[in-house]
Amino acid sequence: MVAACLPRERLRPLAGWLLLLSVGSVAAGRIEDQTEQFFRSGHTNNWAVLVCTSRFWFNYRHVANTLSVYRSVKRLGIPDSHIVLMLADDMACNPRNPKPATVFSHKNMELNVYGDDVEVDYRSYEVTVENFLRVLTGRIPSSTPRSKRLLSDDRSNILIYMTGHGGNGFLKFQDSEEITNIELADAFEQMWQKRRYNELLFIIDTCQGASMYERFYSPNIMALASSQVGEDSLSHQPDPAIGVHLMDRYTFYVLEFLEEINPASQTNMNDLFQVCPRSLCVSTPGHRTDLFQRDPKNVLITDFFGSVRKVEITTDTISLQPDLEITESSYKKDRMDEELMEPLKYAEQLPVAQIIHQKPKLKDWHPPGGFILGLWALIIMVFFKTYGIKHMKFIF
Amino acid sequence: MAAPGVAATDLEVVRGKRAALFFAAVAILLGLPLWWKTTETYRAPLPYSQISGLNALQLRLMVPVTVVFTRESVPLDDQEKLPFTVVQEREIPLKYKMKIKCLFQKAYRRALEHEEAALSLGSMQEAETMLAKSQKQAEGSLTVYVISEHSSLLPQDMMSYIGPERTAVVRGIMHREALNIVGHQVIQVAQAMSLTEDVLAAALSDHLPEDKWSSDKRRPLKSSLGYEITFSLLNPDPKSHDVHWDIEGAVQRYVQPFLSALSAVGNFSVDSQILYYALLPATTWPHTASPMSSTQWSPGWDPALPPFTQSSTFCSTYLMATNAFHSPRWGGIMIYNVDPTVYNASELPVRVEVEMVRVMEVFLAQLRLLFGIAQPQMPPKCLFSGPKSEGLTTWELDQLLWARSVENLATATTTLTSLAQLLGKISNIVIKDDVASEVYSAVAAVQKAAEELASGHLASAFIASQEAVTSSERAFFDPSLLHLLYFPDDQKFAIYIPLFLPMAVPILLSLVKIFLETRKSWKKPEKID
Fold first, then answer.
1. What residue intervals traverse the membrane (chain B) (predicted)?
2. Closest residue, chain B, to A188 (C-alpha)
3. CB-closest option in A25, A190, A315 to B322
């Protein structure tokens, strides 16, 4: 047996992987590379903050953008507990939606990105600048549930994706307020001071998006934007059945790029910078890497979009003395407990039979309301105007 | 007739000048300061100088060691010199801004009667039981007994012995430099039992510059006030396995003693669950932990330790002795392979009773790793007794407390310094009074913890360091600190110009006119002369 001939001391994980090689795993060489690569990145968990800052039906494409990024990020491994999704969420159940409970990201309704299992953390009017900044800096009131918090630590890589309408130096939140690039830069600085991130990838798909990352000054931030200052980001394709544009161009091509990524792929950031050239996007995407310490060609896409957790093999045990008496008696107790339990059933919650067979209630009589009174007063006045006031005497 | 008219206009002009001057004076001397004061953000005073002083804090960690000499352990003339105290300092070479010095305060004394009797017994266990009865040692302190060279308490080739409580035994020597040699050995033993560079490096791993990442340094859970431990049993195929595990008994019997030994470190709560139809996909190892965290529990600071039952031949040959792996700062997973012979006998579902002893051995080992209790590095020729039945020796707990205290102090200092830096950089953050009081208490707690560490009181130092961390985190993460008052310059102009310009223009113009006239009147006398 393999167990007997191993020395009882801690093996380095790399040595553990080498043992896998000797047993005859085919992909062992790749695993070793992966391990080396993985150890170089320095993060142990991944988070994503996806924000759609628009509401109303004609901004369908922003919601579809965010939801598509959400789907990719989930597919590549980040769990819902590590994603903070902020959406106005008024598309799927909008009265103008010809296909209710769906949000499509592709023409001909190929892909429903809303689905059954979307978890929106901040919806509708909760998507405000204040809440967004509170999520980033962690200054959340203590009553906030866990799913609405960004519980990152100094070994987290965070992906922040924002989309909506923007201008030179600001981003519009729900048509009522704005966040400026300086506030965003200050929020990132507060995150850095408290070591709430290891590395941060900031992607923004709005008009003049590059202005939002101009003012960053904290280390380890890489930023991508869909257009330069003075340019507009354009939408991709309208759908004649739904009646609105379904996605923005930059996000559409980024998603096409992400479709080819799987959790084990080795594609790096330089490829992401090439996505959506001017010929396809009409605007010029920009990126900023001067604050980032590693070379972008060494940064894997999965460092931010995927979630790979490091594991080590446990080689030591503590020796414990088994207490046989306790196990025996508990075994008997288990059996007894099972036999005594009665079958479970649901409690009676609603008297359904009564509700179904109810007779309609007699409505109480109410005196006529203002409208009826006003209407009759008008009719009577018109009558007496026409036929003369002398007829009034006969009434009163 | 013209003169009174001229005099009247003169008077009016003078009055007008005076009025304009008074307006200007009120506007500048009263109005400007008032506006400035009322539009500034409220900042309660903070001890900035003390916070910057914390960075230059020199941490001195004192380990009080009592060295007890039995008869015939060292030459007589050395024995005459007893009792006395010697302090040995060692600087810990870490690339950290806080300098850390380790002080071993050795108090030498002669052995008392009952100690002599205990150390002349036959075996080490008996000796230890007798010694343990007499005294209870404070956290952080050590006692080293020096026995004679030819004593049979230790095996012949071993020079020292480290016990599970805070005691150790070292062989004496009949030599001129006996005290120095023995002292050196005592230091070696004491270091193994208390503070080494590795222990402190692991504690400060987040604050040190990263030249190389050792997996040891990133494995332990961060220091926290409490921990929630969840034991989960995943049964992917309940149709074929009917799994039972006596988790209550196992927790009571094996885990609870371990956690009570660790109770100084934090509050623990333990719960358990059984998950049916939860799958472990047969992919490469690094990806297995993430689908599990997506199903139910969110890792964060709840380590989940699930054992697993499945009947497939999934990787059973690839795993090593323990069939288990763990993920840093999260938890561990153990794969429990059901014995294949069970299937031949009965029909499905097969009743499986999980062997809790085997499982708990692995889990306690993983818990030790997750808490950062490393395998001790023994000095050469040293006999180590192994941990007690709880799985933890008392001095390992002390090591943990030291590491945690240092980590807490480092975190609290960083938080306070970052807060001070942020307040300097971003001018719109409001500091309310309660936040300021938290900062003051955090600073006081850091200083108290440093003092206690320097005097060797480990328990109170640890509590003070926990207070420091809690206060500083509360101050930093107070929701009122969120600044939303940033206005770009053009917006500020847009607000103030319509308010101030209509008032300022007449005042400024009249001031200019007054100034020009005064200059003209100064020049006039020259011309006449």
1. 19-36, 493-516
2. B422
3. A315
